[in-house]
Recover the amino acids of this structure.
């Protein structure tokens, strides 16, 4: 039976059950948190709050969350281990690097940055780092990453973004684990992913194009689905620049077109994110872990999405993604 790595060890993919494919436990800026700890407050309280929110997910039938928190998003696995021990939920973690522009300063004068000076091609240390997280475990915790994560946003394919993307592709080839990419469908950055990963020989079926649901352009999304990509309809509840109905209606339309097998669902929520002012967070009343089950799924059903299609998006597609 195929298995997938979780925070508490490998589980059979058949045991993943209902899976939300893009949720964070915490999204943090570690430099700020370390130097201004009053923002974070009590570690015990943050952990207890996270446990409570994840137990709400258990109560609505979710069995697994896939957490793409990597370098650049405040990944700290010992804290996630502590939480995982207290919930009956699989937490699947990632390796990779999150940037919209340049690589972190750590990488500026390592690897390919030295090619010109040395007159030779220098391997990118990111690749070995990512592979180590997958094969050996993260930071001595024994917790192994089960997928890779990178990003491309409105800034497009900058040199730094492309470097990370190619490092992710090469780590994918060495390990076989799948990939999730944060994309900006308004700028059609999925097409950049398609070109770069195509050059690197990555099978699109192993790739989730995250945040595809930010777009209502069903023709563009159909083009990406036809190319083989999995579409992450994964920001339900973030309705500052769009609406609940717009996010849900594009899923309805894609299901009508026969693309349920090419979509996964999620909310990109977190127990705590320090990127957003609490006053703004208060406006996002639907941005929570249980929004899909409490509000999105009833809407989809009312608009013609079948139980089989819902099962495909929540259970079958995540399982297939990790079995490749």
């Amino acid at each position: 039976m195929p298995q997938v790595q979780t925070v508490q060890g490998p589980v059979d993919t058949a045991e993943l059950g209902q899976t939300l494919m893009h949720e964070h436990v915490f999204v943090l800026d570690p430099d700020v948190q370390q130097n201004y700890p009053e923002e974070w407050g009590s570690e015990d309280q943050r952990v207890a709050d996270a446990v409570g929110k994840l137990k709400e997910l258990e109560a609505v039938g979710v069995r697994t969350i896939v957490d793409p928190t990597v370098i650049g998003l405040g990944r700290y696995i010992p804290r996630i281990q502590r939480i995982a021990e207290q919930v009956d939920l699989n937490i699947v973690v990632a390796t990779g690097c999150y940037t919209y522009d340049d690589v972190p300063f750590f990488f500026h004068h390592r690897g390919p940055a030295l090619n010109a000076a040395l007159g030779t091609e220098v391997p990118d240390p990111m690749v070995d780092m990512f592979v180590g997280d997958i094969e050996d475990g993260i930071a001595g915790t024994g917790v192994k990453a089960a997928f890779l994560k990178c990003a491309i946003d409105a800034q497009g394919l900058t040199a730094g973004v492309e470097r990370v993307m190619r490092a992710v592709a090469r780590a994918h080839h060495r390990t076989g684990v799948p990939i999730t990419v944060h994309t900006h469908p308004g700028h059609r950055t999925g097409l950049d992913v398609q070109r770069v990963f195509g050059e690197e020989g990555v099978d699109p079926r192993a790739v989730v194009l995250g945040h595809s649901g930010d777009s209502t352009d069903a023709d563009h999304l159909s083009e990406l689905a036809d190319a083989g990509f999995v579409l992450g309809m994964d920001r339900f509840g973030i309705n500052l620049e769009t609406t609940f109905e717009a996010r849900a209606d594009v899923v309805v339309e894609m299901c009508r077109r026969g693309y349920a097998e090419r979509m996964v669902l999620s909310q990109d929520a977190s127990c705590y994110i320090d990127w957003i002012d609490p006053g703004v967070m208060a406006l996002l009343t639907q941005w929570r872990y249980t929004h899909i089950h409490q509000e999105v799924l009833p809407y989809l059903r009312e608009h013609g999405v079948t139980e089989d299609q819902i099962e495909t998006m929540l259970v079958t597609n995540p399982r297939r993604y990790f079995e490749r």
Observations:
- The mean pLDDT is 96.
- DSSP finds twelve helices and twelve strands in the chain.
- The first strand starts at residue 3 and ends at 6.
